[in-house]
């Protein structure tokens, strides 16, 4: 199934950035609803544009059933789940939003997420409780349409959610409508409302009108009767974070055990609003003349720290309020106190060499926090491809690998 270009561009005018991105990367269609494959999802969070031309392949009921039959149970999950499934999986738009939430949350937040789904407090999440998220994210996405928008938005809702919805069914708030800052905030604020509204009851209607997906079968079994405990939920979230980081790391390591400090800088600056990235890269090259390399353990620990950026920001602001500058030792201590993550001295030194633009061996809020907040919003704020410079050291690494 292919879509007329004018129709595609027309619908994009009525779509949010996340809706647009999902529609660009989705490759499957079933009964009018769009789906990503696991491969599509990985591409959407690690690349700026799809690697293939815009095309939606129509799935038959038999093909969908075969895909779901081959879905492994949750206890067989691993940090290679999405890569192993590749094209043999279907991910809905709601699940896409949920998976994006996972990628930017600290491990301490996993328990909070699980408890938000566990609406009856029995320390297990069933399929009905999980489907409440379908309604919560849909209501977050709904917005007041101008006259003439209704038809286009209705088409989008059918593509993204698989059923028609009424704009009159949005969550009611007193006074003005409040727009949460993120989908994580939406979950946190709205799940409590689900306990006292018709959302849980609506899950039955949703379940009967929608097709199963790879994630639903993975969590709740082929019959949908299984329940999800916290250990399996935690393992899934941790594996997903690890898998995406492994993919990014391997795309630069060329089979080696490390990536260069320059490649690390490329990855950090990739999804930011930094105007002149070349100055950061040149700054780092001059101040780290000898390449030592960043290991995957260092790489992963840094992004675990970034997922705790909000807590670290509070600690860093305390230094600012006390008119104290942030050196490497203070930075490393603040990271550990606020997040529990220990960063290696070499990693901290590399971060300082990248972001300490004025070269005073101190790190300010402006030099680091603001830029890293953009990095957490991968793919939605200020993305611009960064040119990868070919250096003598990188050529040697590639030559060694090719042998």
TrEMBL record:
Its main location: mitochondrion. The keyword Membrane applies. InterPro entries: EF-hand-dom_pair (IPR011992), EF_Hand_1_Ca_BS (IPR018247), EF_hand_dom (IPR002048), MICU1/2/3 (IPR039800). One of its GO terms (biological process) is calcium import into the mitochondrion. PANTHER family: CALCIUM UPTAKE PROTEIN 3, MITOCHONDRIAL, EF HAND DOMAIN FAMILY A1,A2-RELATED. One of its GO terms (cellular component) is mitochondrial intermembrane space. It is found in: Mitochondrion inner membrane; Mitochondrion intermembrane space. Gene3D superfamilies: EF-hand. The lineage of its organism: Eukaryota, Metazoa, Chordata, Craniata, Vertebrata. Residues 105-140, 343-378 form the EF-hand domain. It holds the Pfam family EF-hand_7. CDD domains: EFh_MICU3 (cd16175). This is EF-hand domain-containing protein. Keywords: Calcium, Disulfide bond, Membrane, Metal-binding, Mitochondrion, Mitochondrion inner membrane, Repeat, Transit peptide. It comes from Aptenodytes forsteri.
């Amino acid at each position: 199934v292919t879509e007329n270009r004018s129709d595609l561009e027309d619908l994009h005018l009525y779509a949010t950035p996340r809706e647009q991105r999902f529609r660009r990367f989705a490759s499957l269609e079933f009964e009018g609803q769009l789906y990503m494959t696991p491969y599509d999802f990985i591409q959407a969070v690690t690349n700026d544009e799809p690697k293939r031309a815009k095309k939606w392949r129509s799935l038959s009921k038999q093909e969908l059933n075969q895909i779901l039959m081959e879905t492994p149970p949750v206890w067989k999950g691993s940090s290679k789940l999405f890569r192993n499934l590749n094209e043999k999986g279907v991910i809905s738009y709601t699940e896409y939003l949920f998976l994006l939430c996972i990628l930017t949350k600290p491990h301490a937040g996993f328990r909070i997420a699980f408890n938000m789904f566990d609406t009856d407090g029995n320390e297990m999440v069933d399929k009905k409780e999980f489907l409440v998220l379908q309604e919560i994210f849909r209501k977050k996405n709904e917005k007041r349409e101008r006259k003439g928008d209704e038809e286009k938005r209705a088409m989008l809702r059918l593509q993204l959610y698989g059923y028609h919805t009424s704009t009159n069914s949005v969550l009611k708030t007193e006074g003005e409508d409040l727009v949460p800052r993120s989908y994580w905030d939406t979950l946190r604020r709205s799940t409590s409302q689900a306990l006292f509204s018709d959302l849980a009851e609506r899950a039955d209607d949703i379940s009967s009108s929608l097709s199963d997906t790879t994630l639903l079968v993975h969590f709740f079994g082929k019959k949908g009767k299984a329940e999800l405990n916290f250990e399996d939920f935690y393992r899934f979230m941790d594996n997903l974070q690890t898998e995406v980081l492994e993919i990014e790391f391997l795309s630069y390591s060329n089979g080696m055990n490390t990536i260069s400090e320059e490649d690390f800088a490329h990855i950090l600056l990739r999804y930011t609003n930094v105007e002149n990235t070349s100055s950061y890269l040149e700054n780092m090259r001059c101040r780290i003349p000898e390449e030592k390399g960043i290991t995957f353990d260092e790489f992963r620990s840094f992004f675990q720290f970034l997922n705790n950026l909000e807590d670290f920001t509070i600690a860093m602001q305390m230094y600012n309020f006390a008119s104290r500058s942030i050196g490497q030792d203070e930075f490393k201590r603040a990271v550990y106190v606020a997040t529990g993550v220990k960063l290696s001295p070499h990693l901290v030194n590399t971060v300082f060499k990248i972001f300490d633009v004025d070269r005073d061996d101190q790190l300010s809020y402006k030099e680091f926090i603001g830029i890293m907040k953009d990095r957490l919003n991968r793919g939605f704020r200020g993305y611009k491809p960064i040119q990868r410079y070919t250096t003598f050291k990188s050529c040697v690494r590639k030559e060694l690998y090719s042998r």
